[in-house]
Write a structure and sequence with these properties.
The chain is mainly alpha-helical. It is about 80% helix and about 0% strand. The chain is built from 8 helices and no strands.
Length: about 170
């Protein structure tokens, strides 16, 4: 239970740090990128609703709201990725073979597969390997941000934490 609360707290810290960074930044995001990402978010939202056995008429009645939320989520995600990439590049962050091996080990353990099988799978496709490297790069950039952030810890109840997380996700 403690680990879950710590993970949740770390997630909130990351979200707040990124919001603080992108809040003061100006981004010119190509409309085509927003559209493509927004459509992907929308499809994922529909999949989640269908998986939860939400009736189609209810999904249709929420369509306008889902489209707006999907666009807002897409813009936020694009800004997060751009900010992390820019910070990583400015700070000279590099993904080493050791970083990659550690990520593969962690992923293999999480998925319950042999590390050699996962390594072969990732390395057989350059795009797949690049996706892993990008994820590691952004994780290292986020770690750099949090290592240099002024973070204050305070004890809160689970209800307060959930309320804060819900409010953060709506922003």
């Amino acid at each position: 239970m403690r680990k879950s609360a710590d993970d949740f707290g770390a997630q909130i810290a990351e979200e707040r740090a990124m919001n603080a960074i992108i809040e003061g930044s100006t981004f010119e995001i190509p409309k085509s990128l927003i559209k493509a990402s927004s459509e992907e978010h929308y499809r994922n939202a529909i999949r989640r609703l269908l998986h939860a056995h939400t009736p189609m008429d209810q999904i249709r009645s929420q369509e306008e709201e889902l489209l707006k939320e999907s666009e807002a989520d897409a813009i936020r995600d694009i800004k997060h990725v751009v900010a992390l990439n820019e910070i990583g590049e400015a700070e000279g962050i590099e993904v080493t073979d050791e970083d990659f091996e550690q990520e593969m080990l962690s992923s293999a353990q999480r998925m319950g597969v042999d590390i050699n099988v996962l390594g072969d799978y990732i390395n057989e496709d350059e795009e797949r390997r690049s996706t892993y490297e990008d994820r590691i790069f952004r994780a290292k950039a986020m770690k750099l941000i949090l290592d240099n952030a002024i973070v204050t810890e305070k004890k809160v109840s689970r209800e307060e934490l959930e309320k804060d997380a819900e409010a953060e996700s709506k922003d």
